[in-house]
Amino acid sequence: MLSGAGGHLDGRPRGRLRIVPVRQPTFPDLRTFIDQLRREGDLAEIDLPVDPRLEAAEIHRRVIGAGGPALLFSNPVGSAYPLVTNLFGTSRRAEAAFGRKPFRLIERLVALSQDLVPPTLPSLWAARDVAWEALRIGTSKTGRGPITQRVSRDVDLRQLPVITSWPDDGGPFLTLPLVFTEHPKGVGHNLGMYRMQVHDHRSTGMHWQIGKGGGFHYAVAEELQQPLPATVYLGGPPALILAAVAPLPENVPELMLASLIAGRKLRVCAGPDDRSLLADCEFALGGRVPEGLRRTEGPFGDHYGYYSLAHPYPVFEVEWMACREDAIYPATVVGKPRQEDFFIGDLLQELLSPLFPLVMPGVIDLWSYGETGYHSLAAAVVKERYKREAMASAFRILGESQLSLTKFLLVTDKRVDLRDFKATLEHVLERTRPETDLFVLSNLSMDTLDYSGPRVNEGSKGVWLGLGEPVRQLPREFEASTLPIGVSEVSVFCPGCLVIGGPRQDEEADAGSRLAGEEVFRDWPLLVLTDEPGRAAASSMNFLWTTFTRFEPAADIHAAESGVVRNHVAYSSPILIDARRKAEFPEELFCSPEIAEKVTQRWKEYFPQGRIEMGDSDRGHLD
User: Fold this and answer.
1) How far is it, in rounded angstroms, from Cα 549 to Cα 176?
2) Is residue 503 classed as helix, strand or coil in its secondary structure?
3) Using 50, 70 and 90 to split pLDDT, how confident is the model at 8?
4) Which segments of 447-524 does DSSP mark as H helices, in order?
5) Beta bridge partners of 570
6) Of 129, 242, 439, 582, which is most buried, counting CB atoms within 10 Å of its CB?
7) What percent of the chain clears pLDDT 90, i.e. is strictly above it?
8) What is the pLDDT of residues 395-426, one digit of tens each?
9) Does the CA dihedral 397-403-404-405 come out positive or negative?
C-alpha cells in the first residue's frame, strides 16, 4: 500500500523496493471482470424490462447511494444488448478492477530513478525485474479477435441501450466511450473518454473540452483541412477505462499505461478499413470527425452535480460498427458526489502520485478533491528551501497537463494529510498572512464544465499559501449577541472558518463585501457565505461541494479591507468566499418525480431477493 499520496512525504521511497509476485485476478476484458463480480456476489442482475431513458439511471443512483453492487440489466427496453452499470461504484470494486500491481511497479520505477543515477552494473542488475515487466507492456497482434465477430456498415446507434440520465438532458449519451485518435502528423495517439450525445442513428457529438488530447488532434486536423479518423470502443478491459481518464502529460501514450495496469500486452487485430482494433472490447464504432462541422450538444447532467448547458461541439460520423456476438454495453451515471467517477479519480491519484515529485520536484504531496469535481480545488505540500519557493511549485502545478484547470489551490510546506480537508484548511488558516499569501489570477481559462465564471472556458484562479509555523491561534467557537442584518445563521465548519447563511444573491448582490467587514467576524480568517448554511456545514463533503463548485475567485472573494501594494492586491482578513447560487448558474440535478415514483414502486420487482438497499438519489452521498 502507499504511504500518503506519494509513498513517503519526502518523495523518496526508503530502501529497495521489489515487485513481489502476488496472486491476483487480472481481467483481459470486461466480461471477465463481470464474472468475477458475479462469483463474489457483487453483481445484481435485473431481468425485468428497464427503460434506458431515465429509469436505469435512477436505479443506478439509488444503488450507488447505498454503496450497492454493480448492475446488469439483461432486458433493456428497445435493445437486444445487455446494459451494465456501477462497475466501479465502490472503493473495493475500483481497486479490484485494476489491482495493486501497477502501484507497486510505479513505486519501483520511482526508486529506480534514484538508484540508477549514476548507473552501475550492480544497480542495473538489481533493476532486471523492471526490465522483465517492460517486456510485457505494449500491444501484440492476433489474427482475429472477439471484437470482429460481427461487423456491419448498416449502423443504427438507436439499437444500443444508450442511457438518458437526467430529465433535462439533451438526449441519450454514451457515458463510457473510449475514444482513440492518432495525431494527423503521425506523432502519437490518444485514448480519452468524452461524453457523446447520440444525435441520430449514425452520428454523435464529440465533447472535446479544452485541454483534451483528442481535441488537440482535431485542432491539427482542422488546420490541415481534413477530417480526423476516430475509433470509439465501448466496453474493454478495465485497464483501458482507467488509462482513458488518467491525466497523463500530452504525448504519453495511454495504451502503455493500460498495458501496465493490465499486466499484459493488449491484443490487437485487423478491423474494417485497414484499422487495427483492440481485440477484446465489446463494441467498436469506426468513423471520422469532419473538419469545421459543429452541432449543438447538451444539456447534460455532469459530475459537478449540475447541468452543463448546450454548446456547439464537433460531430462523430459513424461508418461501421464491430462487436462481439453477445456484446455487453457499459454505461455510467454522473451527478452529485459520490458517483463512479469519484472512486476512479481517487484511485488514479493514488496510482500516479508517486510520480509527482519526479515531474514536479518541488511538490511533495498533491491531492485534488473529487467532491468539487476535481478541478475546482486542490491542495499541495511543497518544499520551501528559500523564501516564496512555494509559489514556484504552485505555478508548476497550474502549468501541468489537466492540473492546469485547477481553480483554487491551497499550498503549505508542512506535513498534513491532504485527504483530511478540515485538517488541511485549518493548517493553512493557522499559517497564512492573506495580505501577502492570497493570490487571485484573473482572465484565465477554466474547466469547461465550471459555470461559475463569466463565460464558458473563462474565469480565474486562486492560490492561498499557509507556510512556516502558525502565526495565530484559531477561534473554535462563535458567540454573538446579535447577528448582522440579513444573516440567518452562523455555523463553525472548522477552527478559523465560519459558514454564514445570508440573503440570496438576487436580494443583495454585494452582501459578501458588506459582511466581510462586520466587527462580529473579525477574529475569523475565513468566512463562507451561502444560501444553504445547514447543508454546507453538515459535513466536509457538503462544504466542499456547495462552496467550491459555486464560486469564482476573481468575482467572489471579498475581504475586510483590500489595497494595492506593489501591484499586488493585499487582502486583510477575514476573507469571505461568496458561494451563493447566482441567477445564471445551471440547475442542480434532481430526478423527475414521475421516474422517482416509478422506481420506488418497482424496487422489489427489480430485486426480488430483497437484499439491495435503496439509497437517496437526490442527495447522493451528501449529508
Assistant:
1) 24
2) coil
3) very low
4) 511-516
5) 563
6) 242
7) 77
8) 999 998 889 999 999 999 999 999 999 999 99
9) negative
Contact 260, 211 (CB under 8 A): no
Catalytic residue among 115, 302, 447, 531: 302
Q: Before 82, cis peptide (omega within 30)?
A: no
Query: How far is it, in rounded angstroms, from Cα 214 to Cα 191?
Result: 7
Q: What is the C-alpha separation between 371 and 540, in angstroms, rounded? A: 9
14 residue type, one letter: R
pLDDT reported for residue 358: 82
Beta bridge partners of 411: 380, 465
Q: Above 80 in pLDDT, residue 193?
A: yes
Does the pLDDT of residue 163 top 90, yes or no? yes
CB 2, CB 419: distance < 8 Å? no
pTM: 0.90
- Work out the burial of residue 427: count CB atoms within 10 Å of its CB; fewer than 13 is exposed, 13-18 middle, 19 or more buried: buried
Burial 589-606 (b: 16+ CB within 10 A, else e): bebeeebbebbeeeeeeb
State the Cα–Cα distance between residues 281 and 257, nearest whole angstrom: 17
> 37-46: string of b/e by CB count within 10 Å (b at 16+)?
beeeebbbeb
Q: Which helix (H) or strand (E) holds 200?
A: strand 196-200
Please give the span between the terminal C-alpha atoms of the chain, in angstroms, as a whole number: 30
Residues 6+ apart with CB under 8 A from 353: 2, 5, 6, 7, 365, 366, 367
Residue 304 cell numbers, joined: 459537478
3-state class of 416 per DSSP?
coil
Per-residue pLDDT, 12 = 30
* 158 neighbors 201 (Cβ within 8 angstroms): yes
Query: Cell numbers at residue 236, please?
Result: 474493454
Say yes or no to pLDDT of 476 above 80: yes
72 three-state secondary structure: strand
For this structure, is 302 an active site residue? yes
